[in-house]
Specification:
34% helix; pyruvate-formate lyase- activating enzyme; alpha/beta; 2 domains; Rossmann fold
Length: 373
């Protein structure tokens, strides 16, 4: 029985991780550009899902669909897919493939079909699975986030307890790379609960990778602004190649930040900016415009803060996209004000702003190469 993986640019790292998990069970995933017999697997987000819905519904093979959209909207997805993986896939996908191969109809935990659903009853211990094997990807070192930001699917998918891959497993996996990059919701939270940092564990991790070019605290291992300090940047300066630090602000309004449950203030953002500049690091700061909570003046307040940031750094800007399963699901994005559009355009023309504040789909169909160091 041939098991295929539908090639989708946004899901490259999911392919690497799930291919490795399947290999542990003796299953090989073959990358394809269209559904093929016998089984084709998909990983979808809420922006690209409409582009693949018809393809999946018309496929002449067994279809398995996972990813953040499917986890949040499994009742909808199972109407056109044969099976839906709900939540993390490392254990569930190989178990489901084995079930299909055996002819059994007993669904493993974390799977929905048209006839039945068995909700997840487990979480993945990262060091139980390699981050990649034959199919290479970034090294995922942490899952979960203790913060419940209103727009974010991470705590909905992976929970609010941080789970870390062991240092010896990270060191072993990254031996194949000269340049080492990580996937994590907050690089500086490695080894901690995400709130009380353990920089001693971050240092131990970085020291274990001596001899490699380490990129840490930059895409795709961004950090939070309140985690940026002289001590944390000293570690990055001492052990890492990047001279950019990527962190999220999301809004320049303290009222909006509080409503989003971000857990930091606008002042924390500017404090992080100042520390970055003192260390000759270029800050790359994320913002979301068109948030449901923001007033016209608060949208302009965000742009005013962006202009301050771009004196010595860059901004990465997106138009708000309501994602299913999040507290802001179902809330409409506000229109971006004409004067805000003009200011963002000027920043972009000056090479100070990147992102997708006009077309949300760019965020999910284009590689974020502009964020790499």
């Amino acid at each position: 029985m041939k098991v295929n993986w539908r090639s989708i640019p946004w899901a490259k790292n999911s392919f690497a991780a799930l291919s490795a998990a399947c290999e542990c069970s003796g299953i090989t995933l073959h990358e394809v550009s269209a559904p093929e017999n016998d089984i084709t697997c998909y990983s979808l987000n809420s922006v690209n899902e409409p582009h693949f819905r018809e393809e999946i519904s018309r496929a002449e093979c067994i279809t398995i669909v996972g990813g953040p959209h499917s986890s949040a909207c499994w009742e909808d997805v199972r109407q056109y897919a044969d099976y839906v993986v709900i939540g993390e896939g490392e254990f569930t996908l190989p178990a489901l493939i084995d079930m299909i191969a055996s002819g059994s109809h007993t669904l493993p935990a974390g799977v929905a079909s048209k006839e039945q659903t068995v909700m997840p009853n487990h979480c993945v211990l990262l060091s139980s699975y390699p981050p990649f094997t034959i199919v290479k990807g970034y090294t995922e070192i942490t899952r979960g986030c203790p913060f419940g930001c209103g727009y974010c699917q991470t705590p909905q998918l992976f929970g609010r307890n941080m789970r870390h891959r062991r240092i010896d497993d990270i060191e072993r996996a990254t031996r194949v790379f000269r340049d080492v990059r990580f996937v994590t919701p907050n690089a500086l939270a490695y080894g901690s609960d995400g709130i009380h940092l353990r920089l001693d564990k971050v240092e131990k991790l970085l020291r274990s990778l001596t001899g490699r070019r380490i990129f840490f605290g930059t895409f795709p291992s961004e950090v939070r602004p309140e985690c940026i300090s002289d001590a944390s940047l000293d570690l990055i300066e001492s052990h890492c190649e990047n001279r950019k630090i990527h962190f999220g602000a999301q809004s320049g309004s303290n009222r909006v930040l509080q409503l989003l449950r971000r857990g930091h203030t606008a002042e924390d953002v500017m404090r992080a900016y100042d520390i970055c500049r003192a260390h000759a690091m270029t800050p790359v700061v994320d913002y979301i415009v068109g948030l449901p909570y923001e007033s016209d003046e608060e949208q302009r307040l965000s742009v005013a803060q962006m202009k301050e940031i771009t004196r010595g750094g860059k901004v990465h800007v997106h138009h708000f996209t309501p994602l299913p399963g999040t507290p802001l699901a179902g809330m409409a994005a506000r229109t971006i004000l004409p004067d805000v559009q003009r200011e963002l355009g000027r920043m972009a023309l000056n090479g100070k702003a990147t992102g997708s504040w006009i077309d949300a789909e760019v965020r999910f169909f284009k590689e974020d190469e502009d964020q790499l160091p």
